[in-house]
Amino acid sequence: MKKEYDFAKLKAVRNPYASKKKAVGINLSPQVLDYFKKLAVETGLPYQKLIDLYLLDCAKRRRKLTLKWVAPDNEKVCAGRDLAKALSKTGLRQNEARTWRRDLRTARRRLKAPPTE
């Protein structure tokens, strides 16, 4: 080992991992978090890494989510005032309920739209 090193001759190298990942905020249901946290304990990997690996696998395989909106036999399909009344009983704040209704309308429109290739 040398007593002194000359770092002036070294070239600057960019960190190859600096731009590999992006931090995002995402809302996940408690069931999803519980599932991945239990899986993290079993595997010894952080649950965020497991979620990332699962989503990466879905992206690589080009998996598409299939949604099928089916109301249970004993429940009425809510629309309009019925939906507003049902949402008022959930205890959601008004802005959360509004977001929920908007997301539901968007999902229904996407289901009706013809596939784009």
Descriptive overview:
- The chain is mainly alpha-helical and 117 residues long.
- Among the domains are: 27-63, Orthogonal Bundle (Arc Repressor Mutant); 79-117, no CATH class.
- 48% of the residues lie in helices and 0% in strands.
- The protein is built from four helices and no strands.
- It has helices spanning 30-43, 47-60, 81-89, 94-112.
- Helix 1 crosses helix 2.
- The protein starts with 29 loop residues before the first helix and ends in a 5-residue tail after the last helix.
- The relative contact order is 0.05.
Describe the structure concisely:
This protein is an all-alpha fold and about 120 residues long. It is about 50% helix and about 0% strand. Among the domains are: about 25-65, Arc Repressor Mutant (Orthogonal Bundle); about 80-115, no CATH class.
